[in-house]
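Hey L., structure's done. Input below.
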Amino acid sequence: MGLYQVALSIFALLLTLCSSGTPVTVSRLMTKYKAEGKTDSVYKVITAGLGFTLLIAVPVCALFYILGGKLSFLFADERALKIFLIVLPGLVFTSLYAVIRGVFWGNKDFLPYSIIELLEEAVMIIVGIILITFCTDIYDGAFRAGVAVLISYIFSFTTASIVFFVRKNKLKNPKTELKPLIKSAAPITAMRTATSLAMSLVSVILPIRLVAAGMSESLAMSAFGSAMGQAIPLLFIPTTLIGSFTLVLVPEIAENYYKKRHYYLRRDIEKAIKFATVLSCVFIPVFLVCGEEIGILIFGGHESGKYLTASCFLMIFMALSSVTTSMLNSIGLENKTLIYYVISGVFMLLSIWFLPSVMGVYSLIVGLTFVYGLTTILNLRLINKSCVEKPRYKRFLVGTISLLFPTALVGIMLEKMLLSLLGSFFTLVVCALVMVAFYSALALGFNLIEVKPLIEKVKSSLLKNDKITRRKRINKREKVVIK
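Output:
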């Protein structure tokens, strides 16, 4: 896991550099031009996005293949270089796919994007399992995992390209749209590159600082792999789930902002912040109480579970940082979010440099808290300044976070009683169900979650469907009578 994570962290940095800002910008400019009725400009900005991405990705790949072994110093372990080089061609494919994904966002065509993303993950997992099953040693297994990643990237690009043209998208001369695209994409790319660079530096610096603190090299890589490759990805579960919600909402926010619909803009921002907070708070007690059980069941070890328990409160900052950054980028405040990421990244690097001698690999958790916590606070402050109608969410945040403590207390008592009787798996299931139910009941009791609007929406939808069905039946009878 350590070798694989080191290789993929450098690849993620290059991917961020090549394509992170372009898809968001393409989507936003498409929304803007559609609101202004400029159909030709929509196709021009799509072509500009694809061309600009290609002009960056191809030279970057060529540079790394030409220099080859001279770049081994970028990796904490030189063996990770070959894994990186096998994944590297995927940089071109996945960068272009990222722009096509932005086109789907701009057209509010979310179904093909969702299916392609799901299939990409399925291909990576299935191919990875098949290849790794026949590996000869640990290094060979990590190398084969890299091959699986490359195959999944080629698959998603090919499928997305077919859907892109089937959906009647066109390519037009991008000359007039290159400048506005680059101007808008540059701050987002710089922001995400800075973040990715910081994470790549973490993969190099943290193992070195752990060794300097007294760990052996193999133990340092193992600890880094457990924390960064096992525990931290699980913390992104709420953010991943929120991503689908944000994906649909962000184009709406951009449209409301450009059309000056202040009420709807405020409502959508509140909705996004509240949804991100509640979803994160549902997971936090489960990870806090049952982190070790999750580590044992998924990864077969206590260590990753301990990191999971120690870092579970990060989830709320991860979710809010992600959703607020997306909202600010969608209304043209990319430069501000760039500055916030740079500030928070500096604090993270300082943490992993000075704290490993005091708290070992847990210094990573402190550093990530600076990244996501500080970004969240600054983003929320900027949102308040930027909206004519100020979003109201402070009471909601205080209320939902306060309910975590009684929920966690119930879970701790239950876990102590059940662990020796039921074992890890059933204790996890029972505790998780009870804590989710208990938290939901508290949230309903304090009016933090409103069920009535949801019920009314479901009833309205059912009634509408019933009316449509009746209308179809009537039309069918009328046709029979006419015949």
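The radius of gyration is 24 Å. The chain has a mean pLDDT of 85.

-- N.
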